[in-house]
Specification:
Length: 215
């Protein structure tokens, strides 16, 4: 039991911090500064940041591309998982590295749907083509991009033995994460705390994945 607790200590602590941040965002400095008078947590810092950066279509597109690249990574690992399943004819034959990714992807999908229904924050703007304001906390683009690319890096370290290839993978994955998060941050479609929350959730999930496959 002690070894298990020690193994999952980091993800447990990160989960606590993430949940605490979500609660604080809902209750601290909450004022109607959002679009159409919607109330936003941490309104002072969020309002200041929003006034400094308006909507940027180019940044919005860049963050979309980063997320699409994340979906490609998910598809690649899904194909690997299916191939292992077909070859081994049993779920037990699928490597723990790939199976763990599948579990993480399911958790991300559940969070994506769940937070679409939980209005902790609404977006600061009504985006072109939309008819109603969407929920904004956490930034699901940030959540998806960082979780997929972060967990992919951990998985590749287990699967790829060639250091040169691994170096390229690390550079590409890191670039997608940095560009994706920065683009989302400065696109003007989220509050600052939404981006922070997306990062916290993703770091928690990647930490959980790392602990789970560590043997």
């Amino acid at each position: 039991m002690n070894s298990t607790v020690k193994k999952y200590k980091q993800p447990i602590v990160l989960l606590f911090v993430t949940v605490l941040f979500a609660v604080l965002t809902y209750v601290v400095d909450r004022k109607p500064i959002g679009y159409d008078g919607t109330s936003i947590g941490f309104s002072s810092i969020n309002g200041l940041f929003a006034k400094s950066f308006g909507y940027n279509a180019g940044m919005d597109l860049a963050s979309d591309i980063a997320m699409y690249l994340s979906f490609v990574v998910v598809a690649v690992f899904a194909v690997i998982g299916v191939m292992q399943l077909v070859k081994g004819k049993s779920l037990s034959k699928v490597s723990k590295v790939i199976l763990g990714l599948g579990i993480i992807y399911v958790i991300v999908a559940v969070l994506y749907v769940a937070f679409d229904k939980i209005p902790i924050n609404y977006r600061p703007i009504l985006q072109p083509g939309e008819t109603e304001i969407e929920t904004s906390f956490p930034s699901t683009h940030t959540l998806v991009i960082c979780t997929v690319m972060g967990s992919a890096l951990i998985a590749c370290k287990k699967l790829i033995k060639d250091e040169k290839i691994m170096r390229v993978v690390k550079i590409l994955a890191t670039a997608v994460m940095v560009i994706g998060v920065c683009a989302r941050l400065f696109s003007g479609v989220h509050w600052l705390t939404d981006i922070v929350a997306g990062i916290l959730f993703s770091v928690t999930l990647v930490s959980l994945y790392t602990a789970w496959i560590a043997d």
